[in-house]
Amino acid sequence: MTHSSKNSPQKTRNLLMPVEANQVYGLSEQSWKVLTDVTFPTAKTPEAIIMALDYCKARKLDIFKKPVHVVPM
Question: Is the pTM of the predicted complex or chain greater than 0.70?
Fold first, then answer.
């Protein structure tokens, strides 16, 4: 590993958190970052993550225990 790659900042995704993420799900900015960067890294839009949350809510699943996979189509 080169010196420059060791000190490079980690890439982050900048999917803006919709207002409804906080209003409907009570998510904090930190929770949203976990959802975008770790749980749903392939989601291309905030709406895709909201749809996954809606699915889990409808199925009464705990999103952090049983995540669904967002697959691009």
Answer: no
Give the Cα separation of 34 and 11 in Å (integer).
Answer: 13
Would you give the end-to-end CA distance of the chain in angstroms?
A: 35
- Pick the closest to residue 67 from 54, 52, 51 (CA basis): 52
pLDDT tens digit string along 37-63? Answer: 998 999 999 999 999 888 888 777 565
Query: Structurally, how many domains does the chain consist of?
Result: 1
Six-digit token string for 38? 């770790």
Is there a domain that residue 13 lies in?
no
25 falls within a domain: yes
**Contact of 60 with 30, CB cutoff 8 Å:** no
